[in-house]
């Protein structure tokens, strides 16, 4: 099981330091066999994070959540979005004006479903989070439309 051992070492190494700008690059830092993710995540989390699924609007845990805290990646625990940037978009999905740390997410063009959108992924584990649209209310004009299933709120 060479591969499993290597993954373990990678995880340990990256847990010791915060993901900084030096971690930029397209390859996720946390790599796991798909079976590993399937065991760790709930079916809803797995469908979103690993299969680029979208939860039905107004069904997720956080679309109407107004608690203060930090939203972390449900797969790898990286801090992704602060409740300070969360706003009511009326879409039924948690919506944010910007990531807590710009480097925590990667953006890439997604031309699936006959639309051209910008997909948002967790940089650390490569998990699919949602999409970003240029119609947000903040100064940056961005609306990060994120699935509740991809997030875990750490309330403060
Ligand atoms: Zn992640």
Give the topology.
Elements: H1 2-15, H2 34-40, H3 43-49, E1 69-73, E2 79-82, E3 86-87, E4 95-96, E5 105-110, E6 117-122, E7 128-133, E8 143-146, E9 151-155
Antiparallel strand pairs: 1-2, 1-9, 3-4, 4-8, 5-6, 6-7, 7-8
The structure holds zinc ion.
How does this structure look, described?
This protein has 156 residues and is α+β, with helices and mostly antiparallel strands. The chain has one domain: Metal Binding Protein, Guanine Nucleotide Exchange Factor, Chain A (Beta Complex), CATH 2.170.150.20. Helices cover 18% and strands 26% of the residues. It is built from 3 helices and 9 strands; from the N terminus they run αααβββββββββ. The chain has helices at residues 2-15, 34-40, 43-49; strands at residues 69-73, 79-82, 86-87, 95-96, 105-110, 117-122, 128-133, 143-146, 151-155. The strands form 2 sheets. It has a 6-stranded antiparallel beta sheet, with no helix packed on it. Strands 2-1-9 form a 3-stranded antiparallel beta sheet, with no helix packed on it. The radius of gyration is 15 Å and the shape is globular. Residues 1-24 have low confidence and may be disordered. Zinc ion (ZN) binds at residues 73, 75-76, 78, 122, 124-125, 127.
Jot down its keywords.
156 residues; Metal Binding Protein, Guanine Nucleotide Exchange Factor, Chain A; disordered N terminus
């Amino acid at each position: 099981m060479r591969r499993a051992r290597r993954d373990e070492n990678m995880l340990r190494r990256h847990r010791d330091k915060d993901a900084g700008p030096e971690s930029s690059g397209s390859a996720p830092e946390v790599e796991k066999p798909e079976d590993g993710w399937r065991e760790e995540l709930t079916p809803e989390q797995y469908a979103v994070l690993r299969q680029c699924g979208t939860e039905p609007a107004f069904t997720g845990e956080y679309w109407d959540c107004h608690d203060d805290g930090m939203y972390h990646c449900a797969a790898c625990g990286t801090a992704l979005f602060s409740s300070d940037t969360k706003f009511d978009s009326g879409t039924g999905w948690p919506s944010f004006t910007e990531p807590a740390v710009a480097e925590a997410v990667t953006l890439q063009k997604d031309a699936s479903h006959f639309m051209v959108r910008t997909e948002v992924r967790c940089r650390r584990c490569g998990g699919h989070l949602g999409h970003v649209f240029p119609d947000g209310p903040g100064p940056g004009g961005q609306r990060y439309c994120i699935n509740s299933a991809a997030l875990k709120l750490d309330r403060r």
